[in-house]
């Protein structure tokens, strides 16, 4: 006989699965977003089970959420290798916020589908410190772009990747999904569907086009992906997705070149995206245009870069204000 608790558990678990399917099919969320939401919501589900709390949808209430947030704030982090942080480190406030955002989104979806559940507006997001935007200066960008050795096809590929990332501000997930036949190198542009299913046109610099052409000239394969691995077993019968470069491979590659050039910060694809946006704003681009080029849904997301340019504006003020008197 199925107990009431098991029945409620099954109901909540089923609705979480349906919500994740909604994100995938109707919202067009990336596989990474879906994976993260599954992790955050399953943690909530696991906590309820361990606490022996009934798992019906209507049982989610402000007091339950408060207890869960206390649990998150005290959740210890296990490190797989030595860090400078204490062994007693707990989940960061930003990560706690991601868990709460996932729960609020789930509740909002339930209400949209006519389930009587707690209003997500009753859940306040934890206050987090302002995001620190890390970016490279012009001189540091030049050093990074010149890091690959161009005598191999892999080096030519890496050079093309770095040039494209800095030229476009693409997310790494968007970069690795690119196929050769989707790029118009003559017009130096291509269309892409980014985060949240938002479509945009992406523009390439002439320099990025030149390096892409150099890389593609030495490719002797017929695989569709723009960027592929060149090591390991590969045959003509290997599928496109088996040779397509992964986001993790690109992240490791960029980190390697940053360390090789002894750059002062850990370089990631997102640091190149930040550098792209910062470079545009410092050159005088308006924030709305930068928002469109980055594929941000909300202008608030793009506004994190205005803090970076404040120092630049101060330097202009100090250099030119009052000089005409």
Automatic annotation (TrEMBL):
User: Which superkingdom heads the taxonomic lineage of this protein's source?
Assistant: Bacteria
Any one of the GO CC terms: cytoplasm
Pfam families noted in UniProt: Phage_int_SAM_1, Phage_integrase
* Keyword Cytoplasm in record: yes
Quote the subcellular location field of this record.
Cytoplasm
Q: Which GO terms describe its molecular function?
A: DNA binding
| Annotated keywords | Cell cycle, Cell division, Chromosome partition, Cytoplasm, DNA integration, DNA recombination, DNA-binding
Core-binding (CB) domain: residues covered: 10-111
| Lipid biosynthesis listed as a keyword | no
Residues of the Tyr recombinase domain = 131-318
Q: Which GO terms describe its biological process?
A: cell division; chromosome segregation; DNA integration; DNA recombination
The record, for NCBIfam families, names: recomb_XerA_Arch (NF040815)
Q: What is this protein called?
A: Tyrosine recombinase XerC
- Provide the species name: Candidatus Woesebacteria bacterium RIFCSPLOWO2_01_FULL_39_10b
């Amino acid at each position: 006989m199925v107990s009431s608790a098991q029945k409620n558990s099954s109901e909540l678990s089923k609705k979480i699965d349906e919500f994740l399917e909604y994100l995938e099919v109707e919202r067009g969320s990336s596989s990474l977003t879906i994976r993260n939401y599954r992790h955050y919501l399953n943690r909530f589900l696991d906590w309820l089970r361990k606490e022996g709390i009934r798992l019906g949808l209507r049982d989610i209430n402000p007091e339950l959420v408060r207890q869960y947030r206390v649990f998150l704030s005290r959740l210890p982090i296990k490190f797989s290798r030595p860090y400078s942080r204490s062994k007693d480190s707990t989940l960061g406030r930003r990560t706690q916020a991601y868990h709460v955002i996932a729960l609020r989104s789930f509740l909002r979806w339930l209400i949209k589908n006519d389930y009587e559940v707690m209003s997500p507006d009753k859940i306040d997001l934890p206050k987090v410190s302002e995001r620190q935007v890390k970016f490279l200066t012009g001189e540091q960008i030049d050093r990074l772009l010149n890091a690959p050795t161009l005598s191999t096809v892999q080096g030519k590929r890496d050079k093309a990747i770095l040039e494209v990332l800095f030229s476009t501000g693409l997310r790494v997930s968007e970069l690795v999904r690119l196929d050769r036949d989707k790029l118009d190198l003559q017009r130096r542009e291509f269309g892409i569907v980014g985060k949240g299913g938002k479509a945009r046109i992406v523009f390439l610099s002439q320099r990025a086009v030149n390096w892409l052409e150099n890389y593609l000239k030495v490719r002797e394969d017929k695989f569709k992906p723009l960027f592929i691995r060149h090591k390991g077993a590969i045959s003509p019968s290997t599928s496109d997705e088996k040779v397509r470069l992964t986001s993790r491979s690109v992240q490791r590659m960029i980190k390697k070149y940053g360390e090789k050039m002894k750059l002062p910060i850990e370089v990631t694809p997102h640091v190149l995206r930040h550098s792209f946006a910062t470079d545009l704003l410092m050159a005088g681009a308006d924030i709305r245009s930068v928002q469109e080029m980055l594929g941000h849904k909300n202008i608030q997301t793009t506004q994190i870069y205005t803090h970076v340019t404040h120092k630049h504006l101060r330097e202009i003020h100090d250099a030119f204000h009052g000089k005409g008197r």
